[in-house]
């Protein structure tokens, strides 16, 4: 192993981003990730173009770089500019009952911005089959979690006349299964090993799954929605750890007669303990859950949120906070919508005029409001509403 | 490599039997195959037991050893003796339009014997997805072939009140897909490589397929037929090259709460050119097709059927035919139902009293009658009948 190889290996050890693992010895280097995955940076000119085309100010997640990378977003916008519509596809692996704030990011962005701004339909895949296989849940338990998660997703405010939610266990079959077979024919085992790192001791369910996540990118997988619209384009908002699935999908798409899906990719919502990975479902103290009480939120923030402030008030007044590593400021930059207030906090806190406790208090208020709003909305989601979103049906006015 | 290993390798080279390849440098050694696969010989005492339990003389394929091996057939019969019913599962990979006689063997045995004698329901899987992936057919072409093959299967005389025929492309989904996932979770990639010999350059469709062929062995895959009957046993009549699929299935079955399916396995119907493998769909002169004319049958037999007779009439009269390698006699032992006549032919021909030409003439008559009967029956199979057999429906009187 020569020096360069050694260096490369070390870098790879430092930062692992796959659909199953996100870890890093330091901060995730998103520039490096863009290079490694081969996607493009979502730069200001593209944000401006979205604003121009939709006539709407960019969503906070867009203007603050939460969604920071893309693939072929320009092609989607070119087509849109010529009057051609597209559809959105996002999803969730229902591995746990309660969602945390990081889970909400793609749904908030898709719902409160993309779908509304572009006036396009949305399909949401709940990969209960995946979680049944990876997490060794029973079929029944994964289906139960899928329905529970669907309630949280619906609580984000999606429009039932433009949104189709489906669980793989319910929906795989027919045109969807045919497309799975078409995709599977185009991908060798060596290829999925290269992309996903499977080993011979992994079960074949894992090897069989990538086509299941691939095919919602193709309109013919949804005959009740897009019959006769095989050339409809698809835009996928997702966290960047899902990129490997869609690299594979984009490789296959033209070979089976479809457009490559475009992607708009987010960074990870950091754990309370600091920005070295995503939040972990296995450590409840690493995240704020949408089921947390106001008291729990306050406690978690005060106890666990990694602070960039100094060790003593005196030192803090003198040196100010290190905003680069400060989790309360990170969280506020996701969820405090007021740009002026955010700038004010960053300036004051960075200069030492504001203390960690004050910033944490502001954050607790912002998150409590968000979570309580979500809880109220979620409590209003009935089983009938879930059935309505998940009914296999046409969406007659989906492009209006 | 020591001597033993060398010998074993050589033996393996000599005889390859897998779902995709049957080849041998000499005659297939079925005893060796039983040892290698680990199934049991279907001996006379078991044939007698079937006769005793069903009150019917054994089918010609049973009493002449065409079905020569089994797995757990005794368990099925034990349960049957106690009044417990079972169901039959067989299938076909629709890779070609016209079936040859070898393709009919499992269907004739299932229809004219097993189903009737035991009064049990039957599911027939058409693996159009498999053929789409292995033979690189389009989805549409594999589905068309599945329907065409269904007509030939129906022409064998199946009872629509006891028989459900399905194509994977139509039927995969719901409970069937859930069982696919349950099976896939239990089988590692290394395991399927050991069983099926896949390589890293094989596409993942091949790796994904074994669970599709496995799950019709489990009653819950057919909720419209066997709802609430999860402990119903399954008996699979098939050619022995399908054994690898069901070895895997039997390994998984108890881990997901089902009985291991039992098997009753046939030898291969030999090619006209001699008994070194199965007939090949790619060489039309290696087989008699159910679409062949009387003239074509006569020609093929006269021209290609490998004879055990001697080179000259004089020598033949003196030495007699070698029945061990004689294809006309082999074919007659499949399809000439009259035991006495068959014995007579074997005796006379073996002693030189009967010439090859006479035996071939008798065979041509037997096969022409069989094929013409099939053609008449097939011409009467309408699209409506295919729809009726393939309708997803209960079979209310399936055990009567």
UniProtKB/TrEMBL annotation, chains A, B:
Residues 1-15 have a biased composition (Basic and acidic residues). CDD domains: TrpRS_core. It is found in: Cytoplasm. One of its GO terms (molecular function) is tryptophan-tRNA ligase activity. Keywords: Aminoacyl-tRNA synthetase, ATP-binding, Cytoplasm, Ligase, Nucleotide-binding, Protein biosynthesis. Belongs to the class-I aminoacyl-tRNA synthetase family. This is Tryptophan--tRNA ligase, cytoplasmic. It comes from Citrus sinensis.
């Amino acid at each position: 192993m020569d020096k360069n190889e050694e260096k490369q290996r070390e870098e790879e050890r430092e930062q692992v981003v796959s659909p199953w693992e996100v870890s890093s010895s330091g901060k995730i280097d998103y520039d490096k990730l863009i290079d490694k995955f081969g996607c493009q940076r979502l730069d200001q000119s593209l944000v401006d173009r979205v604003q121009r085309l939709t006539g709407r100010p960019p969503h906070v997640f867009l203007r603050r770089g939460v969604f920071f990378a893309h693939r072929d977003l320009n092609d989607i916008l070119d087509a849109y500019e010529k009057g051609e519509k597209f559809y959105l596809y996002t999803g969730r692996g229902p591995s746990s009952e309660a969602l945390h704030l990081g889970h909400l990011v793609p749904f908030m962005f898709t719902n409160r911005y993309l779908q509304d701004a572009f006036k396009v339909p949305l399909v949401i895949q709940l990969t209960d089959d995946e979680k049944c296989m990876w997490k060794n849940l029973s079929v029944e338990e994964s289906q139960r979690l899928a329905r529970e998660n669907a309630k949280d997703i619906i609580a984000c405010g999606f429009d039932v006349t433009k949104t189709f939610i489906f669980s793989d266990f319910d929906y795989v079959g027919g045109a969807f299964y045919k497309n799975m077979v078409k995709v599977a024919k185009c991908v060798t085992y060596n290829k999925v090993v290269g992309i996903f790192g499977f080993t011979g001791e992994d079960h074949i369910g894992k090897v069989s799954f990538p086509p299941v996540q691939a095919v919602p990118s193709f309109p013919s997988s949804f005959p009740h929605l897009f019959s006769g619209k095989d050339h409809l384009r698809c835009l996928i908002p997702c966290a960047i750890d899902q990129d490997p699935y869609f690299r594979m999908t984009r490789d296959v798409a033209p070979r089976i007669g479809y457009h490559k899906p475009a992607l708009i990719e987010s960074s990870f919502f950091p754990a309370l303990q600091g920005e070295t990975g995503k939040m972990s479902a296995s450590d409840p103290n690493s995240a704020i859950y949408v089921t947390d009480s106001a008291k729990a939120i306050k406690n978690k923030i005060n106890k666990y949120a990694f602070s960039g402030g100094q060790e003593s008030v005196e030192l803090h007044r003198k040196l100010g906070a290190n905003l680069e590593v400060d989790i309360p400021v990170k969280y506020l930059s996701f969820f405090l919508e007021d740009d002026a207030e955010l700038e004010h906090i960053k300036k004051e806190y960075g200069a030492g005029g504001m203390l960690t406790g004050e910033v944490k208090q502001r954050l607790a208020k912002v998150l409590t409001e968000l979570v309580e709003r979500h809880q109220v909305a979620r409590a209003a989601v009935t089983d009938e509403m879930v059935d309505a979103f998940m009914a296999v049906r046409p969406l007659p006015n989906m492009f209006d």
